[in-house]
Amino acid sequence: MTAAGCVLASDVFSVCLTHAFSTEGEEVMGLLIGQLDEKSVAHVSALVILQRSDKRPDRCEISPEQLTDAAMFADSLEHKLKRPMRVIGWYHSHPHITVWPSHVDVRTQADYQMMDPCFVGVIFSVFNIDKQTQESQITVTCFQSVTKYERREVPLYIDKKLTFEVHNLQSLVSLPKVLLTEESIAYRASLPSGDGNLVTQLHNASVYSASVCHVLDTLVTPLMKSLNNRLEKNKETKRRLEQEKQNLQSEIEAANMSNYSALNRKPQNVSLLD
Length: 274
Ligand SMILES: [Zn+2]
Prior knowledge:
The protein is α/β, with parallel strands linked by helices. The protein has helices at residues 10-22, 64-81, 103-115, 166-190, 198-264, and strands spanning 5-9, 29-36, 41-49, 86-95, 120-129, 136-145, 151-153, 156-159. It is globular, with a radius of gyration of 27 Å.
């Protein structure tokens, strides 16, 4: 049995894409959560953004602890949403390179399929410029491994939704925290255990500060703006709906009043003998 297709909810797609665009220099990754239908199509409706332990290219390794945490998160969602949820795939980014899976990706994917034959891999190729039009290009693919050396494409669909589910909004909000934790761990690892070279320490502290500023500048500020816009839009929708409710209530009251007066109207005596 293999995956016949993969449907990404539009809010999940949006968070994955924001995650992919958060880091230009290295690949980022996460796990996809959802359910399989009777035709073996994977429906992805949630995700887990993963913290990286190794930022070198092609080192998208997911630790057993991260997989266990994601499985527990899927369980809690299943309980909350009252529908089956489990880890059904993984995603990672290819900044400045083609979308196609590398040999390492195909091997990693084959390992995941040993545990779950319908497990899917999604890749987001970002930060690419079309040479002819000079426009920014985003390419996305979904794949499975046939062997450890051969892959096949899985049809990928984006399911357009009008709402942004709360758990996906929470994942989006957790993104800066994940990136800042990665930077903090890298900086702590660079600290010498004894008396280190002062210039090296100063250099590392500056690199750390620059990285934190970069996250704040490229991610936190736009995210705050976007969430504030969303809040204003929601407030406006609330105002409009309250006005609509008031109008409908007035119409109901008016209709009730006219029914009441119709029922209580005295019948007029008509005399034919006048
Ligand atoms: Zn890759």
